[in-house]
Sequence to fold (214 residues):
Amino acid sequence: MIVTIDGPAGAGKSTVARGLAQRLGYLFLDTGAMYRAVTYAVMQAGADFTQFAERIAVANKIWIDLQEDVILVDGEDVSQLIRTAEVTENVHFMADDPSIRELLVERQRAMASGQNVVTEGRDQGTVVFPEAACKIFLTASPEERARRRHAEREHAGEAVTLDEIRASQDLRDGRDASRPVGTLRKALDAVEVVTDGMTAAEVVAHLETLVRKK
Fold:
């Protein structure tokens, strides 16, 4: 069974999807981390984000492996390195590139083949797994999403203001809604869950109920 969780930045998709996968005993597929991993690899290679040939050359030659909470690029643990502000600011070059999206979608489907999976991202229920048995659209108010992301960044030791987080979030929301491929949108058969005022544990419990009904 495939469970897709889509939604905007800061909605808590990764935390909730990971918790849900653990509760169900399913594989957790963090697709956002895959785009971040390619972005990080481009940075490390000294390639130019704005040049298609350089982006795709890096994407084609690296190997991304997801192991529970660990993201590996060619065997290197980059779990924390892909969460920096610089990666966040440049990941749209990867997400907006049709060729990179096609490459990563192919890899996502291969990882999920024959598995029980909880997968999260922007286009999992609409593009990657349109036949998924259970689709969830996870969201929260812009204020709540910015507050959560600010807390995450502070916990990671990054000096960033709430206003800076909100401005970056608004920019990403605009890009996600208007990009030509992998556009963020709710699948027609997805269940929308608004998480304002809910703890991560409460959201996981609610989603588990939805999945088990399916």
